[in-house]
Amino acid sequence: MKNREKILITVSAFIISAIAIGLFVFMPLKDNITRLNSDIRDKRIVLEITKRRSENLTVLKNDYENIQNKNKLLDAMYISQDNTISFFKDLEDAAQKNNIDLNYSLGNMTDEISGKEVKLDINIKGDYLKILAFLSDLESLDYYIKLYSINFTQGEAQSANAIIQAKTYWH
């Protein structure tokens, strides 16, 4: 029996030692593994957020470049103080091309007109179809002109008169 008790004590000591090793060695390792898993999850979330920001940054950069390109087009459409003479020359050339009489006036011209809307009054006389052709040419000019009122009146014989109120945009 003594051998049996010794074996039982040895086996019990071995089991208790195994449990103690499990508690004192593997339990801290389990806590470390749990903490590392939590850290990895947090870093994945941060990485995903950073990835989305990077994608958004790329999209924003492309949008900014598109806006810059369109901004150049808008600048070309607005009348600048540098191309004022060419604007009026183009207006007069369109009238001469369509063989109509043209009178125009700008309202509220100041020294600083950048970024402003300036009223343009145009009075024209000529054949009705030629006035329509002039309006088509006016619309096809390289400048942004917003027509907001056109009044036609009967002139002499086959002629007509038109009073056009428009807005021009300056930069």
Describe this structure in words.
The radius of gyration is 42 Å and the shape is rod-shaped. The protein has 2 domains: 1-77; 81-170, Ribosomal protein S6/Translation elongation factor EF1B (Alpha-Beta Plaits, 2-Layer Sandwich), CATH 3.30.70. It has helices at 2-77, 84-97, 128-139; strands spanning 101-106, 116-127, 145-154, 159-170. A hairpin with a 4-residue loop joins strand 3 and strand 4. The longest helix is centred in the first third of the chain and has 76 residues, at 2-77. A 4-stranded antiparallel beta sheet has the order 1-2-4-3. The model has no long low-confidence stretch (mean pLDDT 83). The protein is built from 3 helices and 4 strands. It is α+β, with helices and mostly antiparallel strands and 171 residues long.
Topology:
Blueprint: H1 2-77, H2 84-97, E1 101-106, E2 116-127, H3 128-139, E3 145-154, E4 159-170
Antiparallel strand pairs: 1-2, 2-4, 3-4
Question: How many domains, as an integer?
Answer: 2
Major β-sheet annotation: 4 strands, antiparallel
The CATH homologous superfamily of the largest domain is called Ribosomal protein S6/Translation elongation factor EF1B
CATH architecture heading of the largest domain: 2-Layer Sandwich
Summarize this, please?
This protein is an alpha+beta fold. Helix content is 60%, strand content 23%.
Give the tags:
alpha+beta, 2 domains, single chain, 171 residues, rod-shaped, 60% helix, Alpha-Beta Plaits, four-stranded antiparallel β-sheet, 4 strands
